[in-house]
Amino acid sequence: MLIKLVEHIDLNEAYAYLHANEAGAVNLFVGTVRNHSKGKEVVRLDFEAYDAMAIRQMEHLAKQAFEKWSLVKLAIIHAVGAKDPGTPVVVIGVSSAHRDASFEACRYLIDELKKTVPIWKKEFYEDNSVWVNAHP
C-alpha cells in the first residue's frame, strides 16, 4: 500500500506504484482544486490534517478495500497546505485483475475518505474564506 500525506502530489509516482503485470485494470482518481464554489471564485484551498490519525484511518480504509475486492495494489495520497486551482489534492488508485473491482474500490475509498479521514479544507475567495468541512 502507498498511503501518505504530502505537500505535492506526483501522479507519475502513483501510477508507477500501481502498475503490475498481473493487473488488467489501473484506476486512478485525481481530485483537483476547482476555481469556483457556491457561486464564488475560489483563489486557493488550504488543507490541514491530523497526520497520525489521518494515516491510520487511510490504512484502515485500504484494509477494508482489500477485504471487499480482489485488488493487486492500492494508493491513497492526500495533499496538505495551500493549493491553487487546478492542483491535484487527492489521489485514490487501485490496480486489479478486472475493471469492476478497480472502479468500485476507487469509488468506495474516495467516498469514505471524505467522510472519515481527519483532513480539513478551507476555501479562500476574493472577499473572504470559510472552512468547508468541520468534520470528521
From TrEMBL:
GO terms for biological process: Mo-molybdopterin cofactor biosynthetic process. Pathway: Cofactor biosynthesis; molybdopterin biosynthesis. Heterotetramer of 2 MoaD subunits and 2 MoaE subunits. Also stable as homodimer. The enzyme changes between these two forms during catalysis. PANTHER family: MOLYBDOPTERIN SYNTHASE RELATED. It catalyses: 2 [molybdopterin-synthase sulfur-carrier protein]-C-terminal-Gly-aminoethanethioate + cyclic pyranopterin phosphate + H2O = molybdopterin + 2 [molybdopterin-synthase sulfur-carrier protein]-C-terminal Gly-Gly + 2 H(+). This is Molybdopterin synthase catalytic subunit. InterPro entries: MoaE_sf, Mopterin_biosynth_MoaE. Belongs to the MoaE family. It holds the Pfam family MoaE. It comes from Mucilaginibacter galii. GO terms for molecular function: molybdopterin synthase activity. Its EC number is 2.8.1.12. The keyword Transmembrane helix does not apply. Keywords: Molybdenum cofactor biosynthesis.
